[in-house]
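On clarity, I found the account of how folds are encoded harder to follow than it need be. An entry of this sort, consisting of the sequence and the corresponding backbone structure tokens, reads as follows:
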Amino acid sequence: MIYNSYGDLTTHSFLRNRNAELKLDLATLSQEVSTGKKSNLTAELGGDFSYLADIENNLNRIESQTVATNETKLFALSMQSNLSRIQEGTQLMRDDIISVSTTLNATDAEQFAKEASRQLDAAISSLNGWAGGRSLFSGTATGTSPLNDADTMMSELVLETAGLTDAADIIQAVKDWFADPAGFNTLMYNGSTTDLSPVEIGDGETVSLSLRADDPDLTHSLQSFAILALMDEPGLALSDEIKIDMTRAGMTEMADSSSRLVEAQADIGFMESQLERVSTRNQASKTSLSLAFNDIVLADQYEVSSKMKSTETQLEILYTVTARSAQLSLVKHM
């Protein structure tokens, strides 16, 4: 039988080198446990980081699009909610007038005038709404509420209709004021005439929430409320007959306003569905890329823990062997 024997110097050198290797392995494994990341990405990627860089760039791009999408979703939801309040107000007034149209009298007309005044205030408040620190209906002037108050509007309309004694003439004067650039746009609208820029929410997909408070589909509801609210202005001193005629005409105006608002809401609803679809797609892409990124960068904690325990055991054994070998020297037995 052949026995291999090693000298003390060789054994000492082997134990010392093995001790250094195990300590290095333990330090590497400890780092991976504490950071959760692989310690040698260069070896993992074969020195080519382009694939990992591409994943990180795509994740950053999707993250930016996700932030933009979430902000735009909030903006669209707020616009939709505010328009819904105005639309409900126009529809309710239309239905209330229809319900008493056959027996309509001056007292009814005066009640509708007071309600129209309240609804006008509410509509202006809705169009002056904000979300996320930005004005909803001011175009690019997102730091400015777009409309002056209802008192400003009614004061101007009283001047425009003073002296008129026919319901049709009064209504036409109101419409002319809203259509005149020197009327509503100059005296009531404070927002920008430039639409908000489209927002990129996905690769090749944008949405544009460009609805402004000076849009005819929105101002028509203010016009309808104003027509009825004029009946409550004491400076005009309208007769009962004119009030009844204006109320009946206001019913038609309210119906038109309600239809216009529904169309505006439908446009925003289409964008909301687009935002939701792109948001879902972006989330799926982010999940897929994150899994690929984690597979490359993150260490398997179960595997690392097992290796760490094994290395610690080997190191303990090595210490034991080293201690025993140290006691086998000739000096110890002399």
Q: What stands out?
A: The chain has ten helices and four strands.
